[in-house]
């Protein structure tokens, strides 16, 4: 019985066919892919979100979740940088999860937010493991 459970846990996980290359994707696109995956696999986190009647745009919920779970990259002052956890404090998503801006109106701190494929795969593993 233990081996059966272990083999089902270790079997290869399904990945979304629309992300076959190793190129980074925009945070909004990665959030849409995560949303579709959670819905298509009927993951427990998806059921919880539906039971809680999440009022915000569900893709934005997934984008915010990614910001807290995996590394996200953005452009600041013309340079691409990894956005570290402490730097995210006091910031919120804007323009459909494409930019991170401070709470006070100003120019975006980080623009063109991106997610790497390997980080997205870790996020998918996290989605499948929670709740």
Structure in a nutshell:
This protein has 131 residues and is α+β, with helices and mostly antiparallel strands. The chain has helices at 2-10, 27-40, 44-51, 58-69, 117-129; strands spanning 25-26, 72-76, 79-83, 91-94, 99-102, 111-115.
Rounded mean pLDDT score:
81
Percent strand: 15-25%
Helix content: 40-55%
Describe the strand arrangement of the main beta sheet, using strand numbers: 1-6-2-3
Alpha-beta classification: alpha+beta
Number of domains: 1
The ordered string of helix (H) and strand (E) elements is HEHHHEEEEEH
Report the biggest beta sheet as strand number plus sense, adding barrel if it closes.
4 strands, antiparallel
Give the strand tally: 6
3D shape: globular
| Low-confidence runs | 3-8
How many helices? The count is 5
Distance between the termini: 22 Å
Radius of gyration, in angstroms, nearest whole number:
16 Å
Please tell me about this protein's structure.
With about 130 residues, the protein is α+β, with helices and mostly antiparallel strands. The protein has one domain. About 45% of the residues lie in helices and about 20% in strands. It has five helices and six strands. Strands 1-6-2-3 form a four-stranded antiparallel β-sheet. Strands 4-5 form a two-stranded antiparallel sheet. Helix 2 packs across helix 4 and helix 2 packs parallel to helix 5. The chain starts with a helix and ends with a helix.
